[in-house]
Write a structure and sequence with these properties.
The complex is a heterodimer. Chain A is α/β, with parallel strands linked by helices. Chain A has 24 helices and 7 strands. Chain A has helices at 2-21, 24-44, 56-71, 95-107, 111-137, 140-151, 154-160, 165-185, 190-204, 212-222, 224-229, 231-254, 256-265, 272-283, 288-293, 296-309, 314-319, 337-352, 358-367, 390-405, 409-438, 447-458, 474-480, 485-491; strands at 463-467, 493-496, 502-507, 510-513, 525-529, 538-545, 551-558. Chain A has a 7-stranded mixed sheet with strand order 2-3-4-1-5-7-6. In chain A, helix 5 (111-137) packs antiparallel against helix 6. Chain B is built from 8 helices and 2 strands. Chain B has helices at residues 2-20, 34-46, 52-58, 61-75, 79-104, 107-125, 129-144, 155-174; strands at residues 23-26, 182-185. The two termini of chain B are 36 Å apart. The chains are: A alpha/beta, B mainly alpha. At the A-B interface, helix 16, helix 17, helix 18 and helix 21 of A face helix 4, helix 5 and helix 8 of B.
Chain lengths: 566, 188
């Protein structure tokens, strides 16, 4: 009896401790930690080797960060740039580069360090999605589901694994949205954090400059009462941010360099609608009716409408993804197929349940493509990245709402979990086994191998002549040789063309050419040319191929004829 | 008032149907079963060095068939395709029709929606692209008319509908060539 009682008391004590230890709240916290760890794993695993190479923008971000670390100047010698880094003449926003400086200091100048900020802040964005969902729906289950959906999202994984400024900017704008909610619901001083986050997003990625104003309007309408009530805080935040934003605003609107990127990509600089308008009006004899029907403004408006709706193209969202192989594996959409049903269900339930923030969520979804629709290439997964995590929020709400109404709950959960696992595994298989191999060329694969190939000959060579066929080779030689930035600036031959693009003709021993005959060279020169370009008097030292076996570069040297009389 | 709006919308859609009848040569939308085989062979060939079982789990005719059909089906809901068929007014009414369908949950409208979702399969498997596309267009036009039921006869909405109808006619005039589904149109 005594032992029976003792045993049962011990069991009861353990049960109480166990229950306290594994209370619902604690279990949910553990689930959240597991989701974040999963997100980190999916973003950091083989980060240095998949994608298979740094593409030129990544290389530029990395080398400029390295230059800042070593000399506090960018590659062109500008001291701590605030509004832009000139780079290739594309005048990159500065914040990603500054965010890369600590990781290069820690990990060295390599692929992992350059991509680290994107992967790190991508993982943190998953955590932000949890908090945003909690604010929107006040339901921990929906919040956990939304964060799980974002953690496993092919769109977000793909862009977290490359050094994409847009991904860091997504973290910042999501932080801005979350802190705006906290301003409206908790404490008013959060408005300053929100405003600074949005400002930082605009300093990180050009696309955010056409998103932040719209989302601020949406947030202000949603929380107009809170804005009116705390107008002093709002005004103070606005003034501080206006002062900080002014240099960027001046650069973007008042300089040719600032407008360059927009002019390069916008549909409104395309002359085809004007040409079409003129032809049609000419054919119709320039009648008043034809001037109205074939008005070029209407043609541009039509183009804009088409580009806007491209963002919701089912092929882009569910089957093929972005046409650019850097932003999509081409076999999986930006969302999984299961997301189609969950997003539709979520949209239905948002309105059927008259969810408090339904208009805000849909407004966020609908304003996100407004800016990217002004560009030629649509749909564009990177320029539209700030649409995340709306799909995941809506899908999570759809799933949990449907779960509450559906009779066979276990079957539903099992089916959805199975669908997500199958979709995720298929995406990961394509990503690691197929995509890296099939599309290594899209990532300028081969330059790193080329630098390794010429390294043994570097000291003895007079010149190293490199073809520009693959695009912007200079940055790779700087990066992989960890070339001293100060020495680079002293020896670089840089030309700026009429369109303000920057062309590096050479530095140190390196000469970057379209045609090797453009420059002088000696018998002790090394050539890096397209396959088959080496002359008959050249000896091929190495052939560099892409991962799918296509030769892309040849390292060669002139055959030296030994004078027998000597 | 709703009857006048209905007549206006039917006129706009009828205009588009008339335009579409001038198409001599339609894009190819039919599902090609050979694409399944090509998909499987291509993917399996890329899996060099992988465990064959693993490769076959991911790349088999069942999964490839599902994927290729989904890909072909999704093309028939491409944004430009939808815009070219429905125009701005049709897209707006389609949204309203979906809201009306899920709000009222009437069997008739739900069945109508199922028909809209099912007709693209006719295009994928049908022998006559023109007839199959026409069936799809008419299904979408007729379904979008349910959106008029959601309208409340206030001035703003009436003005909006009239503006959209005019914009749509203008849009159809600009998209005379029907670029998303027609290679060659008869009346140029």
């Amino acid at each position: 009896m005594r032992y029976f009682l003792t045993d049962n008391i011990i069991i009861l004590v353990f049960a109480i401790i166990g229950q306290a230890l594994l209370s619902k709240a604690k279990v949910k916290k553990l689930i959240l930690i597991a989701i974040i760890l999963l997100a980190a794993l999916l973003r950091f695993y083989k980060l240095d080797s998949v994608p298979p190479s740094l593409y030129w923008d990544e290389a530029s971000l990395g080398y400029n960060a390295y230059s800042i670390l070593k000399t506090a100047k960018d590659e062109h010698g500008k001291f701590l740039p605030t509004t832009n880094f000139a780079a290739f003449g594309d005048y990159k926003p500065p914040l990603y580069i500054y965010a890369t400086v600590p990781s290069i200091a820690l990990f060295g100048l390599n692929e992992f360090a350059i991509r680290f900020p994107s992967a790190f802040f991508g993982t943190l964005t998953v955590l932000l999605a949890y908090f945003i969902a909690k604010k929107l729906f006040d339901d921990q289950n929906i919040a956990l589901t939304a964060s799980l959906f974002l953690a496993t999202s092919p769109w977000h994984i793909q862009l977290s694994r490359g050094a994409f400024e847009g991904n860091l900017a997504l973290f910042l704008s999501s932080l801005g949205i979350l802190t705006f909610f906290k301003f409206a619901k908790d404490k008013p001083f959060y408005i300053l954090i929100s405003a600074l986050s949005f400002l930082a997003a605009m300093y990180t990625f050009t696309g955010q400059r056409l998103f932040v104003p719209f989302i601020l309007i949406v947030l202000s309408i949603q929380f107009k009462d809170a804005v009116k009530k705390n107008i002093k805080y709002v005004a103070a935040a606005a003034i501080i941010c206006a002062i900080l934003f002014f240099p960027l605003f001046k650069f973007t609107t008042d300089t040719i360099e600032g407008k360059l990127r927009f002019n390069e990509v916008t549909i409104f600089k395309n002359l085809e609608p004007i040409d079409r308008s003129t032809r049609y009006r000419q054919r119709d004899g320039y009648s008043t009716l034809s001037d109205i029907v074939h008005n070029r403004r209407f043609l541009y408006a039509r183009e804009y409408l088409i580009h806007y709706f491209d963002a919701f193209n089912p092929t882009f969202l569910f089957t093929k993804g972005d046409g650019n192989p850097r932003f999509s594996v081409q076999e999986v959409g930006q969302l999984y197929l299961i997301d189609l049903f969950l997003v539709l269900a979520g949209t239905y339930y948002l309105f059927a349940n008259k969810q408090k923030y339904r208009f805000f969520i849909l407004a966020w979804l609908l304003v996100s493509p407004l800016g990217p629709a002004t560009a030629r290439e649509t749909p564009h997964a990177l320029r539209m990245i700030h649409i995340l995590p709306t799909f995941q929020l809506i899908a999570a709400y759809g799933l949990i709402s449907f779960y509450r109404y559906f009779r066979y709950k276990k079957i539903l959960l099992s089916a959805v979990a199975l669908a997500i696992v199958i979709n995720l595994l298929f995406y990961l298989h394509i990503y690691y086994s197929h995509w890296a191999k099939n599309y290594s060329g899209e990532w300028q694969y081969g330059y790193k191998q080329t630098v390794e190939a010429i390294r043994p000959y570097y000291d003895n060579a007079d010149y190293i002549i490199v073809t520009k066929n693959l695009g912007r080779p200079y940055i790779y030689f700087l990066l992989y040789l960890k070339f001293d930035p100060e020495k680079y600036r002293q020896t670089a031959d840089i030309r700026r063309d009429n369109f303000y693009f920057i062309d590096v003709k050479g530095f140190d021993k390196f000469r970057f050419v379209d045609n090797p005959d453009e420059v002088e060279f000696t018998d002790d020169s090394i050539f890096v040319l397209s396959p088959g370009s080496a002359g008959a008097n050249m000896r091929v030292l190495d052939t560099i191929s892409t991962l799918d076996g296509k030769p892309i570069l040849e390292v060669s040297q002139k055959i030296k004829i030994i004078d027998e009389e000597l | 008032m709703k009857k006048i709006i209905l007549a206006l919308v039917i006129f706009v859609f009828a205009f588009r149907i008339w335009q579409t009848s001038g198409c001599k040569n339609y894009h190819f939308f039919k599902f090609e079963p050979i694409s399944v085989k090509i998909n499987v062979e291509e993917q399996v060939n890329t899996d060099i060095g992988q465990n064959r079982q693993v490769s076959r789990i991911f790349h088999n005719k069942a999964s490839a068939t599902f994927y290729e059909i989904t890909k072909s089906y999704a093309k028939l809901f491409d944004s430009q395709f939808i815009l070219d068929i429905l125009g701005p007014i049709g897209v707006a009414l389609m949204f309203l029709a979906l809201i009306y369908t899920f709000k009222t949950k009437k069997l008739f409208t739900l069945s109508h929606l199922i028909i809209v979702v099912a007709t693209p399969f006719l295009v994928l498997i049908g022998s006559n692209t023109k007839i199959s596309l026409f069936v799809q267009f008419i299904a979408m036009y007729s379904f979008s008319l349910w959106g008029i039921k959601s309208l409340m006869p206030n001035k703003l909405q009436i003005f909006g509908i009239i503006f959209l109808a005019i914009s749509t006619l203008w849009y159809f005039a600009l998209s005379w060539q029907l670029p998303s589904f027609c290679n060659e149109i008869f009346f140029n």
